[in-house]
Amino acid sequence: MFLFRMLVSISPICYLCDMSSIVISPKNQQELQFISKLLQKLGVNSKVLSNEDTEDLGLSLLMKEADRSDFTTEDEIISKLKD
């Protein structure tokens, strides 16, 4: 399985403006290199994400979608940890 992901951003200064991104999953190393070179020639900023970066991104999306209105007691947490 190919382990790289490429995140293509429209803006290099993502903290100052709205940013859209495209996630590309190349089939192999050659395709990754081709796409990287193409984006570089087009002047588009890109970053190759590691597996850890990809997992962190997924986790942050799940955390963003989590229901924060539901609370639990300390006893319930301890009970689950003991199981």
**Oligomeric composition of the shown chains:** single chain
The number of strands is 3
Compute the average pLDDT: 79
Shape: elongated
| End-to-end Cα distance | 35 Å
What percent of the residues sit in helical stretches (DSSP H or I)? Answer: 40-55%
What's the SSE pattern? EEHEHH
Radius of gyration: 19 Å
Strand content: 15-25%
Q: Number of helical runs?
A: 3
What structural class do helix, strand and pairing data support? alpha+beta
Low-pLDDT sequence parts: 9-16
Biggest sheet strand order reads 2-1-3
How would you summarize the topology of this molecule?
Elements (H helix, E strand, L loop, with lengths): L4 E5 L11 E4 L4 H14 L3 E4 L1 H15 L8 H9 L1
Antiparallel strand pairs: 1-2, 1-3
Concise account of the structure shown:
With 83 residues, the chain is an alpha+beta fold.
Describe this structure in words.
The protein is α+β, with helices and mostly antiparallel strands. The protein has a domain at 1-52. Helix content is 46%, strand content 16%. The chain contains three helices and three strands. It has helices at residues 29-42, 51-65, 74-82, and strands spanning 5-9, 21-24, 46-49. Strands 2-1-3 form a three-stranded antiparallel β-sheet. The longest helix has 15 residues, at 51-65. The model is unreliable at 9-16 (pLDDT under 50).
